[in-house]
Model the fold of this input.
Amino acid sequence: MNLCKTKSTSATADLEKIRALYAPYVQKTADHPWLVAESGNEIAGYAYAEKLYARPAYARAAETSVYVKEDCRRGVVGRKLYESMENILKRQFVTNLYACIAYREAEDGTLTRASVDFHRAMGYRFAGKFERCGFKFGQWYDVVWMEKIIGEHDGAHFVPFSSLRNKRNTRY
Done:
C-alpha cells in the first residue's frame, strides 16, 4: 500500500501542483463559470460563480467573486469579467447573484471599500450585514452581502455550465 504523506501548509512551490490537481474539476465538472482575463501573456484577473447553497432549492442563486491584478484595478477588467459571467449565468437560468464582502464603515490600511463600490456600480444592492463575522489582518470585520437580480423568477431549471460549453477555450 502506498501511503500519502501529510503536509500541514502549502507553499508557493506547491501552486503548480495544486493547479494541476484542481484543473480537471474546473474543466470537467464545474456547474458555474470560471473566467480569466488576459493582458498580453499575463493573467489580469479572474472571476467565478459558485452555488450559493448546496440544496437544490437554491440552484438558481449563485455567489460571485472577482479578483483583479493590482495594476489593472480601476480599469475595465473586473467589469468585463462580471459582464461576461452574468451573460453565462443568464443562459444557465440563474436569477439571483450574491457577493460576500469584508467590510468596515471606515477604511483602514488593509481594507478599502473598493469591492463594495465595484459591486454597487455593477448593479448590486445591499442585502444584509453580519457584524464582526470575519477575522483577518488581526482584526474583526463585518461581512456584507450584496445582491443583484439578473433573471425572471419563473419555472426554468438550472443548466450546468459544463452543458453550455463545447470546448475549454471558449471566449465569452
User: Anything to note?
Assistant: The chain has a mean pLDDT of 87.
